[in-house]
Specification:
The protein has 422 residues and is an alpha+beta fold. The chain folds into four domains: 52 residues; 105 residues, Nucleic acid-binding proteins (OB fold (Dihydrolipoamide Acetyltransferase, E2P), Beta Barrel); 89 residues, Nucleic acid-binding proteins (OB fold (Dihydrolipoamide Acetyltransferase, E2P)); 154 residues, Nucleic acid-binding proteins (OB fold (Dihydrolipoamide Acetyltransferase, E2P), Beta Barrel), CATH 2.40.50. Helix content is 20%, strand content 41%. It contains eight helices and 21 strands. The strands form four sheets. The chain has a five-stranded mixed beta barrel. The protein has a five-stranded mixed beta barrel with strand order 8-9-10-12-11. Strands 14-18-19-21-20 form a five-stranded mixed β-barrel. Helix 1 crosses helix 2 and helix 2 packs across helix 3. The chain is elongated and about 85 Å long. The two termini are 54 Å apart. The structure holds zinc ion. The site of zinc ion (ZN) has 7 residues, from loops.
Length: 422
């Protein structure tokens, strides 16, 4: 059955307007609500199909995914505004977090109830749906929002303010203050055709995170300290990234925001378990250098590493030389592959591409470059800083800093033991 069929059937069943029902179903389909659940929800909205019982009043901690509709009194913690798209139309929705004395719950409002962070409201007939295993409130046409004068005391921060290290993918309506450390303009193929966006890095005293501004504005520029209101957080290569939308407000801060000089240090095990960290420091020994290191060749079209001038996507190409290291770093708790780019490889190899080419020519073997790098690195301890990503093939760290550490072996053994236990 198509969505139209479902809508027609349901509308005639309920004795209401088909287009109206269709619109509701479509909106929920946009949010991947299963059709059966969506139809139940519409039935409830029109006061049919339920068991005829009253909507139960609940504390936040009592709300479960078994509930279909609840009444609840909550403090509004955050209000994020976002536009979604369905059937070629833009629709503005609101989302964020609500809390009472017993707990916290996220919500999506399909209409503008004018919710403000800090105010306390009684929600009559809020829908409950499951979102990644947890209950979430859905506020729609059937929901009554009643302002309560006496604010609820809650143990959560109102307003969505967060330090960068506290952000998690899925957070909405957040407020952050940070310094823009890097920023560049990019053209992407978005849903509205070619779109200009800003891509960069934001930092505060707790962390550095990637940042995307989907509606480029002049306040977001390298070196600027800014307060961003109503941002949302997405996952980028396993780590949180700050997203600035058309509804976000960006203002300069009065004082420059301090940014931590060093990256947080993790054991490899803990770092990998987190699924990805944008800026992290690891210390360990290089126990091996993988194939595909040294003087390599790349496709000029796509940048992939090629062999015998054959690219998997572009066939026969005139490959370009490059330098790279894929080193296996081990700290006793786990291993990651540390990737050094051309510049950092040249440092550990002791020469650039030209030197490597001569070296290979003299030996009549390109492998001599990787061999020399192996001899230089294996068995030594290094402090590495960079961006860690984890996928099904393992953990990779794109290094921005790679330096040898001279550590007393006994100190090192103790440290590794301690890190292994945390
Ligand atoms: Zn290619």
């Amino acid at each position: 059955m198509t969505l139209d069929d479902h809508a027609e059937e349901l509308a005639s069943d309920l004795g209401v307007d088909t287009q109206e029902v269709r619109r509701k179903l479509e909106k929920m389909a946009e949010y991947n609500v299963p059709m059966s659940e969506a139809k139940q929800s519409v039935r409830r909205e029109y006061g049919s199909g339920g068991s005829g019982t009253e909507v139960p009043t609940r504390d936040v901690s009592e709300i479960s995914t078994d509930d279909s509709n609840v009444g609840v009194t909550v403090r509004v913690l955050s209000v994020g505004k976002r536009s979604i798209q369905y059937s070629g139309e833009r629709e503005v929705i609101f989302e964020g977090e609500l809390a009472d004395e017993t707990g916290l719950i996220s919500y999506t409002a399909w209409e503008d109830f004018g919710l403000e962070p800090g105010e306390t409201v009684t929600l009559g007939n809020a829908g409950v749906r499951e979102w990644e295993g947890d209950p979430e409130l859905n506020l729609g046409e059937a929901t009554d929002v009643e302002r309560v004068d006496e604010p609820l005391e809650v143990s959560y921060e109102v307003g969505g303010e967060a330090a960068l290290a506290e952000l998690e993918p899925g957070d909405r309506g957040v407020v952050v203050e940070g310094r823009i450390l890097e920023c560049e303009s990019k053209t992407i193929d978005g849903r509205d055709g070619k779109t200009e966006i800003l891509s960069g890095v934001i930092g505060d005293e707790t962390a550095r995170l990637p940042l995307t501004d989907w509606k480029p504005r002049p306040q977001i520029a390298a070196g600027e300290s800014v307060r961003i209101e109503n941002a949302y957080v997405r996952e980028f290569r396993g780590a949180p990234s700050v997203n600035v939308s058309e509804f976000s407000t960006v203002t300069p801060t009065e004082q420059p925001v301090a940014v931590a000089e060093s990256a947080p240090r993790y054991s490899i095990q803990a770092a990998v378990a987190g699924g990805g960290i944008f800026d992290v420091e690891l210390v360990g020994s290089v126990v091996g250098v993988r194939d595909g290191s040294g003087l390599i060749e790349r496709c000029p079209e796509c940048g992939r590493v090629v062999q015998n001038d054959q690219c998997r996507s572009h066939g026969a190409v005139e490959a370009e030389d490059d330098l790279r290291v894929k080193a296996i770093l081990d700290d006793g708790t786990g291993t990651v592959t540390v990737i050094l780019d051309e510049e950092r490889t040249a440092e550990v190899y002791g020469g650039g591409i030209e030197t490597a080419r001569e070296h290979a020519r003299d030996a009549m073997d390109r492998e001599v470059v990787a061999e020399q790098i192996r001899e230089e690195l294996v068995g030594r301890a290094f402090r590495v800083r960079g961006s860690l990503s984890v996928d099904e093939f393992g953990a990779n760290l794109d290094a921005t800093t790679f330096e040898a550490v001279d550590e007393d072996p006994a100190t090192r053994a103790t440290r590794l033991l301690q890190e292994a236990q945390t």
